[in-house]
Amino acid sequence: MTSMVVFNSCEKNxxxxxxxxxxxxxxxxxxxxxxxxxxxxxxxxxxxxxxxxDGALRCDPPSMQQVQQATLSITLIxxxxxxxxxxxxxxxxxxxxxxxxxxxASFSSDESGIKTHxxxxxxxxxxQVFLKMIDQQKNTSQVCYFTGYxxxxx
Length: 154
Description:
Blueprint: E1 24-26, E2 29-31, E3 36-37, E4 43-44, E5 51-60, E6 68-78, E7 82-89, E8 92-101, E9 104-111, E10 114-123, E11 126-135, E12 140-150
Antiparallel strand pairs: 1-2, 3-4, 5-6, 5-12, 6-7, 7-8, 8-9, 9-10, 10-11, 11-12
């Protein structure tokens, strides 16, 4: 006597209803590559950073610079994650290109013996920026902090 049991699966493919625009589907979830986010990987990571941010800039040591009002501007260079930062700092304007990923962005440069590192985080309409400039010739450094809110689009 022989018996045979056959099982048929009626399970629907978990990925059939997803349109992972810039990623791939695994077990019903889009897996986004670096620079993309959202349920279907539809949003460039840089989107959260792009805009005008009004806030306060403070540089250490305090004797060098008091808290001052400042406007930070971040523009998109290339989707999904290439951005440009423009921030007035200590009587000059800092212009740097950087990369955004999720809620973090980083910028750096090494020009004329001055290394500049900028790290930014975004939480909704709030941005916090840490900036460090190192003058390698004079062996000095300057640290600044910017906290701002996204300006209203016109």
